[in-house]
Write a structure and sequence with these properties.
334 residues, mainly alpha, 0% strand
Amino acid sequence: MKPFTLPMPARYGINTALLIIFLIVGNAVTQSGMLGRAQNSLIIQIGFFIILAVSLNLMTGYLGQLPLGHAGFMAVGGYAGALFWRAQILPDGASIVVGLLLAGVTAAFVGFLIGIPALRLRGDYLAIITLGFGEIIRVVLNNIDWLTYGARGLQSIPRHSSFTVVYICVIFTCAAIHMLMKSRHGRAILSIRDNEIAAESCGVNTTYYKVMAFAVSAFFAGIAGALYAGNQGILVPANFDFMTSINILMIVVLGGLGSMMGSVIAASILTFLPFVLQPLNEYRMIIYSLLLIIVMIFKPSGLMGNYDFSLSRIIEKVVRRIQKAKGASADETR
């Protein structure tokens, strides 16, 4: 008997239905008043940390590079989107879309400019130079008072980051990176991770794909920065320092390099955990750190390794087991 396989339209239909259900349930919970303002803000924070982690995973997990300037791209996108929203040129609906696109494109352009010289380096050298560029971005934002208001912070930013907006951005980010990695461009990116010299000898333009991945990663980091601005209502350059980049990298490593589902789970846990541990006060960060150490000791490949969740694949396995059991029982009756 031929193994059961879901047709592609059915796969897309199942995924779409599942996403719509999550959207309806999430909207119902956030708008019902069951949760306070802090809890609603936390859910939105989980959303843009998922975007940051998934976009950085494109560079670290799929491309195999180690950039440490992701917070810089987040800052560039955040300020670009926030300045546009403050101008209030368009109606709210159009303003949200254009502001997010402007944030992403601005961050991608900066990522492209930085990626051309930076991605000619590898390993520790790449980490150091991207760390330097991230700090340069923060210092520049801190010193152009006429545009960003410097250390005082950019205030009175319209709060456009609702659950629906953030949820759609999360789905768009995950779907776009998933489709990219399933295309020939994704296979070229994976070949660079596995063996850059062999990939180049086979005709893969390694510089092109590294810069492209860097720019795409920066694009989504910029969108996350705009969502952050729309949630907080204020932007301060000090919030985009070296430790912010390290926290994003920590989410990716904890979830599993090359696992999109791992990044989603780790971003949710690491954003939610400090909130849960708040009653413990001075012991909160000690417990938080110990939990991270324990996970890294007993699961060094991350929570999900390189596994990616697929509901369609689970359904196929269940149906195949049922078919196998039926076939076995039919053989026994004969």
